[in-house]
Amino acid sequence: MKYHNLMLVSLAIMSLNATAKVSPEEASKIGDQLTPLGAEKAGNESGTIPAWTGGLNSNNTAKSGDTGRPNNPFADEKPLFTITAKNLADYKDNLTPGQLAMFTKFPDYTMPVYKTHRSVAYPESVYPLIKNNAVNTTLVESGYGLSDFDTTIPFPIPNSGLEVVWNHITRFRGGSAVRVATAIPVQAGGAFVPVKITDRLVWPEYLEGGRDADKDDNVLFYYLQSITAPARLTGTALLIHETIDQYKEARRAWVYNSGQRRVRRAPNVAYDGPGAGTDGLRTTDNYDMYNGSPDRYEWTLKGKKEIYIPYNAYPLLNPDLEYDEIIGAGHLNPEHLRYELHRVWEVEANVKSDSRHIYSKRTLFIDEDSWGASVIDHYDNRGQLWKMSEAHNIQFYDVDTPWMVAETLHDLDSGRYLVTGLSNEEPKFMEWGGKATRQDFTSAALRRAGR
């Protein structure tokens, strides 16, 4: 894969001081040479990646009837080409090892590639916060927390792999949202039973009354999840107060099980603890592609690459589709997928010698425009490629928010996979902007969610 060599040189120089803020002169590139989020504004030399011109946003795109399922602005487009096992050699330089392994594991696997659209946009009100973070936010001494940070994207001009990962962890997800979706473990033969989930997520800045310096100290966001089907899992609920510095203060997590009828602390809801309702396919930190404290890994920034990643995945929102039309043996039905060529940051994570994790190594490919991880390759403790995850993102242009409509995690050994986020058979998907209070994220609220 082609690296951006000049970028690598500057990164090598800047990595000498991994916690440094950028200078005002460097920050002045944001909004000029760089997008408001810090991506390269210009397209690539070949023209296959266009310049960013503002993305799809609430000011330039017709409003949808349902902001949780926006209309597909690219519905009339056809694939430019389709990658198959037969022509794979022509495109291998723009695919990750995990993506390449899918073609080996599944001979029928294909990847439809469409015209690239740089659709990402955040609310205009957020852009000044990001530029301000560039000259103020630093990593704390351990590297596993942030100082002088405001809301989202602490390092729009990153100096290290850890800073890129922090951008993924803190990226904007609408401020306040409720999601009604599924987690679907798929067996090697294609059999599945959907697990139905309701999530609620809010940043302290979006609570009624806003962030409170004392009550929300060290809190990045509040999260409440409840499982509503199948019957054997109904009544399971999870509450998280996600901390900004998890080295100083671990994530605060509680679970409620209707069978036991009690709330208990859940310190195992972290790292490689098992994810509920996923049939053992997902670790806790696989959720949202990667989440939680980064303290068990050494992070190395490799540079930028151009790869084919899921993007503008509006077909996966189609309410006329049923799950068995999307889900197949080994992988999702490519007829409903969309890949585009985009620039990504490549970050390699190797587990520390004094730590443990079932993934000894992860390679993250993080979209430069949104800071969301688009593809992650996972390696086992023998150093062998084991799993590959992909984020199928869209731009929710009515609310200026890029986020996933599906997330897949493939076990390349067993042929099983997990798809999280599909909502086609649900009456609704996303609800944005609802006002929440801290009382909505207490043990009492957790108990109510589990009933």
TrEMBL record:
Sequence ranges of Polar residues compositional bias: 55-64
Tagged with keyword Signal: yes
Pfam families assigned to the protein according to its UniProt record, in alphabetical order: DUF1329
Coiled coil region boundaries: none
Signal peptide bounds: 1-20
InterPro entries, A to Z: DUF1329
Keyword terms: Signal
Region (Disordered): 40-76
Annotated protein name in UniProt: DUF1329 domain-containing protein
